[in-house]
């Protein structure tokens, strides 16, 4: 009886793991008809995965990041990002332009090759960021949230997407210290 129950639980767990580890078959999925007006405003960056070596500071210096998104006009977004680095809290602002054909924003002069909102319900957002110059580029996945915490489901989607992007080992949930994030509160 006991053994039977354990077996059922093990099987159920194996099933969950098998289903959970399927790569997204239609990646990169761009949020359909994203409403930039609703997406704009202040976001916390609650988790990050990046293959840019040395982007994240030492464990004890990690903090929540933040981003403020503005839409000055159609086809253009202004993004400010604040992030705790080893040198301290740093913020940067960049204006991105939409690609003529694809649903991606970029500013190659400033080293932003792509800013894709992969998915959002406007309370959380999953952003795939490609940074770099011509020959070299880094990929990062950001989990944005209007709150300083993430929901279980959005975190799950973040981790699934990390898997697709082969960033699983780099996935980092940031400590809930908002001191850097709040430096760019509108
Ligand atoms: C997170 O946000 C809540 C609600 O806005 C606030 O009460 C709490 O102090 C925040 N936590 C941290 C660690 O900043």
UniProtKB/TrEMBL annotation:
Against Pfam families, the record matches this protein to: Lipocalin
- Gene designation: LOC109686609
Q: Where is the signal peptide?
A: 1-18
- Lipocalin/cytosolic fatty-acid binding domain: residues covered: 40-146
Question: Which keywords describe this protein according to UniProt?
Answer: Membrane, Secreted, Signal, Transmembrane, Transmembrane helix
Q: Which family does it belong to?
A: Belongs to the calycin superfamily. Lipocalin family.
Protein name per UniProt: Epididymal-specific lipocalin-10-like
Lineage: superkingdom: Eukaryota
Residue stretches in coiled coil: none
Protein's cellular compartments: Secreted
GO MF annotations, alphabetized: small molecule binding
A Gene Ontology CC term for this entry?
A: extracellular region
Q: Which residues cross the membrane?
A: 42-58
């Amino acid at each position: 009886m006991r053994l039977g129950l354990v077996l059922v639980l093990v099987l159920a767990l194996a099933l969950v793991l098998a289903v959970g580890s399927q790569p997204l078959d239609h990646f990169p999925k761009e949020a359909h008809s994203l409403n930039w007006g609703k997406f704009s405003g202040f976001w916390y960056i609650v988790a990050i995965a990046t293959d840019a070596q040395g982007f994240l500071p030492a464990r004890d210096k990690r903090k929540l990041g933040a981003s403020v998104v503005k839409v000055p006009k159609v086809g253009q977004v202004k993004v400010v990002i604040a992030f705790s680095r080893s040198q301290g809290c740093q913020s940067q602002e960049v204006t991105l332009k939409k690609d003529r054909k694809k649903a991606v924003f970029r500013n190659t002069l400033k080293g932003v090759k792509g800013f894709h909102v992969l998915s959002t319900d406007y309370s959380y957002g999953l952003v795939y960021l490609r940074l770099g110059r011509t020959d070299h580029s880094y990929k990062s996945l950001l989990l944005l949230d209007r709150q300083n915490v993430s929901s279980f489901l959005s975190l799950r989607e973040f981790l699934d997407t990390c898997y697709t992007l082969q960033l699983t080992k780099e996935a980092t949930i940031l400590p809930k210290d908002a001191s850097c994030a709040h430096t760019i509160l509108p």
